[in-house]
Amino acid sequence: MTGTTTPAGATLTKDQMAARVAADIPAGAYVNLGIGLPTLVGDHLPPGSGVTLHTENGMLGMGPRPAPDDVDPELINAGKVPVTELPGASYFHQADSFAMMRGGHIDVCVLGAFQVSVRGDLANWSTGAPDAIPAVGGAMDLAVGARRTVVMMSLLTKEGGPKLVGDCTLPLTGLACVSRVYTDRAVLDVGPGCDPDGRAVVVERFGVSHAELEELLGLALGGAS
Amino acid sequence: MTGTTTPAGATLTKDQMAARVAADIPAGAYVNLGIGLPTLVGDHLPPGSGVTLHTENGMLGMGPRPAPDDVDPELINAGKVPVTELPGASYFHQADSFAMMRGGHIDVCVLGAFQVSVRGDLANWSTGAPDAIPAVGGAMDLAVGARRTVVMMSLLTKEGGPKLVGDCTLPLTGLACVSRVYTDRAVLDVGPGCDPDGRAVVVERFGVSHAELEELLGLALGGAS
Amino acid sequence: MTRVAASALEALGEVPDGATVMIGGFGPAGQPVELVEALLAHGATGLVVVSNNAGNGDDALARLVRDGRVRRIVCSFPRQVDSWHFDAAYRAGRIELELVPQGNLAERIRAAGAGIGAFFTPTGYGTPLAEGKETRVLDGVPMVLETPIRADVALVKAHRADAAGNLVYRRTARNFGPVMATAARRTVAQVREVVPAGALDPEAVVTPGIYVEAVVALDGGTAIAGVGA
Amino acid sequence: MTRVAASALEALGEVPDGATVMIGGFGPAGQPVELVEALLAHGATGLVVVSNNAGNGDDALARLVRDGRVRRIVCSFPRQVDSWHFDAAYRAGRIELELVPQGNLAERIRAAGAGIGAFFTPTGYGTPLAEGKETRVLDGVPMVLETPIRADVALVKAHRADAAGNLVYRRTARNFGPVMATAARRTVAQVREVVPAGALDPEAVVTPGIYVEAVVALDGGTAIAGVGA
């Protein structure tokens, strides 16, 4: 919760974004990192932070990737990538694992996204392409289940269009569920109650001015310094 | 399923009733015995029957009462009486234990009763006395959860009134849930579908004629021999 | 992160007047005796208690009831041969009772912990305990709509904890502990022993530490047949 | 009573055409590979499959789909880098897909096993996957009514079984096995080893034998790091 800062050099790399997300995770928190970009956050949690990682395929106390010789095909994360077991870990079945998520016991969930709206709506499971093979996994459960759901994504699409939008145009994952968006160019608060005027609010900018951000997104933003 | 037999001596003792109930329990069945009279059934299951006892406070594979020196206050049945653990036992919490019952996984549940109606309605949790302290426990879950719910009770109250009735007058535990009633004077089938004329059907009599049974109960009964 | 407390009272922490408190146990097995004693000493009043039973003899829950500190109890089996204090309070209209079938009690507590808003069950349909409740026929079976039961604090007894707050139970003392632990804002567990993180088999953990705010090791007093170190 | 079968095909038993078959596993972990191979060999067709994924590469589930033996699949994540057979069948309209959020999949399967007729959950509210479903605001949260998912047969993979049918799993291979085992008329489990009744710790049993119709010991083929005898 650093407040608005002045531009500081260039846009963030993926690892810098992950470190920025990690810096906001309270010591001792129970955290779920979505597949893709958010898994990088695990590498930036300081030792001794006491953060416990949940993976929705049925484990608390997940550790980093194993050495190649220690890969166990029965010890994987939700992205089906081999992981390790830390002291104090526990295993549970899918209904218990999602009860943990859906019952509001996970402090922070970090998800990737295709689009997030200023109201905190999330679209991260379908590109809407007519010939796409659908897949949703745990996205909808994660989006609405955690105490705090945040998104980690690039601010813009490959084509340069905004991913933080007034209204999501892609199929929704959840309504008003995201409270903060961490991007390569800015950190912004979104969702109900973050701004009296219903805008997204700039928390921090990276190599870009407030006006430039508004220009890139085509949105009026709160938090101007 | 012995069909109607002729009167054979006197009414049954409690142990003879328990043996009669036990004789109908299929080999290998998973069985829950309600508190009170039904717990006697456990003593009459033949060795090697492969019957597994469930106790709704959280155990499968319950064994008989322990020797006094082996009593463990943390190993009790639903009547809070010390029991033992048989090889192949397992423990689970209350929600899992009742899920097992309510999900239709228990083959036979034997319950005590104040009243059973010819339609199979059960009243076994409240005497309806205005000053009574209420208590229901697992009765309502057991009544409707098992694949087959049977009742073990004396045919008559201490005052000589019938406990198998046209309509229960006491507060109900469950509707149309009992399929057979084992008593000291007769075994009778009850519930939907047991008789085209909607009567209880006599399966077996003990020291009493069909007409005498009808007289005692004030009901027309099927299964006259 | 789970606190490892030095005493039952320290483990209990702050319980506001009017709080809803879940208390584990089925009969004597799994009763968090010392934690309920601590609640008695703590002084909170106007409590709502969620518990399978309503106190035996002069145990701590019975004394909470006797002293008028329990406004309402949600319970499946209050009547016991020695439930004198509850019986007296109930007959005098000094305590409100919500009588809940035991399976509904367990499932409603689970629902609170699992984020289920309500569920349909056949249990209780057509009985006085379902009077006034919404019903619906599903797949040909008449059912009753039941709602979650949450708490501010859950007091449970387990066998062992590790420093990460993971709990294992013992035999039929497991009963309500694991579901209650999921349904309260804060769960406090009394155990016989707290071992280092990593000393419990991760496959055998029953309550993951995420559900446990504080643990306290108490020798318990009750001799348990066959329990070694 | 649980059968201890001598082969995967014997364990599988009779599966009628049109049956609903649950298949455990999340990715490769917990997939009952040999049992699905047995289902392929058995010949049943017109199947409804309930499974988190829809087949990888040329695995047995993928071949069931390729060969047109799966009429409908209920699934949370069919798309994989190598889900060619599903992708082709889906694009050609040869298979019906019910896409279910993973937590709803787990909870709906649990509901079937636990006798819950339906439940309200916030998951999916306002999204295309809840279109046409009944909704209700409960405690201020908009929710969707979800119904149980049952099966005729569940095929699961566990680590060990005992002769009473009790199962223990291993690490994240546990996933859907325990809930699917409760929701099918018949559950068949492949395990690495069947031990005598009493050889598993009763406190650590994950699936009690009551849920298991047959077990079969198969060495499995996949080398598992750190697994001894």
TrEMBL record, chains A, B:
The species this protein was found in: Isoptericola hypogeus
InterPro entries the record matches: 3-oxoacid_CoA-transf_B, CoA_trans_fam_I, NagB/RpiA_transferase-like
Keyword Transferase found: yes
Protein name: 3-oxoacid CoA-transferase subunit B
Sorted UniProt keywords: Transferase
Keyword Transferase attached: yes
Highest taxon above the source species: Bacteria
A Pfam match: CoA_trans
Family that this chain belongs to: Belongs to the 3-oxoacid CoA-transferase subunit B family.
Automatic annotation (TrEMBL), chains C, D:
Keyword line: Transferase
Gene3D superfamilies for the chain: Glutaconate Coenzyme A-transferase
Similarity comment: Belongs to the 3-oxoacid CoA-transferase subunit A family.
Classification via Pfam families: CoA_trans (PF01144)
Protein name per the record: 3-oxoacid CoA-transferase subunit A
